[in-house]
Please model this.
Amino acid sequence: MNNLFGLIRIKELMNITKGSKDIKIGLIDGPVQAEHKNLVKSNITLINSDIKPKCLTNDSIACKHGTFIAGILCGNRDSETPGICPQCPLIVRPVFPEETVAGKYTNSNFEELTKAVNDIINAGAKIINLSLGIAKANNYEFPALKAVLDFAYKKGVLVFAAAGNHGNIGVIPLISHPWIIPVTACDINGIPYKKNNLGITIGKRGIMAPGVDISSAIPEDKLSKMSGTSVAVPFVAGTAALLWSLYPKASAYDIHKAILKPDYPRKSIIPPLLDGMGSYISLKQNNY
Model:
């Protein structure tokens, strides 16, 4: 795990803080088994909607995915989960029902996602983790989703979203909104994941983080490994939560800018690697 944290230079931040109770992270994903032994110490709030936020069927794909991402964000530090920001409250608002089938569990739709983002913002989240894609991707002009993402910007809520795992190059509908930070995946050596979606937008305002063969929690107190851009997102969202915990007077724009490494020359469709200490130093230099 230390090699993983060392790659993106967040171990130093994790040594300083476990996060602040004032920095709430919104997880829009599948249901979460909050009673998992590696999550039981976490401060997890489940938002009720048409989709139940608590795992009812522990072997469901949606439940495994939601619990896995939660383990990266706020799992216990003394466990096998990454547990980046365990003292940051986690607000869970599912968009994947437990009946979802293999291959479909990371696809939401515009209507459900719009409701979820609005619910998460109203629940007080300062950071939103979207480890998902969008079904019917050709409908990228869905105005209600754009409006709720505009609302996130105005409220100062950071939004991190998976770039997708289709190996495509071009426009990715969900991450077309300028406030969203798209996230691609890499392995422990920093080599980009071969299935990453890439493009000019991702290269210019995206970031890359570990997302290959990552171990985290799944239901029934078990662990599993997963790969993909959805796995990389919580490393970035969790790092943003640590930074904001350390610099509570910084604005959402300040954290957004620090994460994106403004001095990095962006001339590729592949985004730069997350650099937690680099972002920390950037904020420190600006006296936040």
Summary: Residues 229-246 form the longest helix (18 residues). The CA atoms of residues 73 and 177 lie 24 Å apart.
